[in-house]
Amino acid sequence: MAETGTNREYRDRLFKFIFGNPQNREWTLSLYNAVNGSHYTDASAIRLNTIENAVYMSMKNDVSFLIDNTMSFYEQQSTFNPNMPMRFLIYAGMIYSKYVEESKHYHRYSSAQQKAPTPKCVCFYNGTADKEDRIMLSLSDSFDGESDIEVRVTMININFGHNNALLDACKPLKEYAWFVDKVRSNQQTMETLEEAVDTALEELPDDSLIKPFLLANKAEVKRMCITEYDEARTFAEQREEGREEGREEGREEGREEGRKEGREEGRKEGVLATLIGLVKKGILTLAQAAEEAHMTVAEFEAKTGLKA
Q: Is 230 exposed, middle or buried (0-12, 13-18, 19+ CB in 10 A)?
C-alpha cells in the first residue's frame, strides 16, 4: 500500500502530524501498544495507509495503518461527534477496497473463506466538554430499524485527568495532551492564539520526545493549531445557529399546529351550528343530530342547550 509522503503542504490536524507521519513510526507504534496493551518493538512493521486525497466526499482520515494483521483507524476530535461511526465506515470501505485490490493474499473470487485484517476504530477526544473516559459509539444507533451493518468506535478521552494509564503508557500521547492543554490555558491570559502556541512550545519539557519535532516544524504546528481552533469555533457557531434554527422551526411548527387546531375547532363549530339549525327546523331529531356529532344525547344537549 502507498504510504503517506513527507514532502507535502501540511493542512492536517496536529494529531495526524505527530502520529501519522512516516518519520514518527516509533510514536505510532507506542500509541498502538498503549491502546491494545501490546509490546511490539519493530516500528518498521507499521504500514501506513492513511487516506490523503479521497475524491469521494472530499474526506481525509487522521491515521490508519496495518500491523500484525490489525487494521487500525485512529481519529482525533476536539468536539464530541456521535456520528463518528459513519465516518469510520466510509474510511474503512476505502481502505479495505484498496487492500483487496493490492493484496497478493486476498482472493475475492475464491470459494474458500478469505481472511482480512481485523479493524479497530478509535477516536481520541480532547475537547472541552466533559466526557467519560471511554464511550462506545455504534453505527446502529443511527438507524431506525435493525441494521445488517455495524461499526463500533471506542472514543477515548485523552484530556488531562482522564485515562492516565493510557497516557503514561505512551509518552508522545501524554506530551501531545499536555501541549493542547497548555495552549488552551495560555489562551486565557494571552492576546493571540499564536502567542499561546509559541509559549506552549517553549514550555514543553526539554526531555519531551515531541518537542524537537514540533520546534523543527514550528510554522506548520502554529498553522495547524490556528486552523483547528478556527474549526472548533466555527463548529460551535454553526451548532448555535442550528439550535436557533431548530427553535424557530419549533416555534413555526407550534404556530402551524395551532392554526391546524384552530381550523379543526372552527370546522367542528360549523358542523355543530348546522346540526342545531336542522334540529330547530325539525329536519333532524336530537338523537340523530347527536349521532352526527359523535356525541351522546346528553353531551349534545349540554353543548348546544337544546332539549328533547
A: exposed
Q: How far is CA 206 from the centre of its chain?
A: 35
Query: 32: burial class by Cβ within 10 Å (0-12, 13-18, 19+)?
Result: buried
The C-alpha atoms of residue 208 and residue 205 are separated, in whole angstroms, by 5
Cβ neighbours for 68, distance < 8 A, ≥ 6 positions apart: 38, 40, 45
**8-state DSSP, 23:** G
CA dist 71 and 64 (Å) reads 7
Q: How far apart are CA 66 and CA 299, in angstroms?
A: 76
Q: Which residue type is seen at 186?
A: N
Q: Which residues pair with 137 in a beta bridge?
A: 153
Q: Angle at Cα 50 formed by Cα 224 and Cα 120, nearest 5°?
A: 110
pLDDT given for residue 245 in this prediction: 62
Q: How far apart are CA 100 and CA 266, in angstroms?
A: 66
Contact 121, 150 (CB under 8 A): no
| Strand-pair partners of 201 | none
Mean pLDDT (whole number) for 42-58: 73
Helix (H, G, I), strand (E, B) or coil at 136: strand
From 122, 96, 130, 94, select the one nearest 19 (Cα to Cα): 122
pLDDT > 70: what percent of the chain? 82
- CA–CA gap between residue 220 and residue 99 (Å, rounded): 31
> pLDDT digits over 77-115, tens only?
988 999 999 999 999 999 999 999 998 889 989 999 999
Record the pTM. 0.71
- Cell representation of residue 72: 487500525
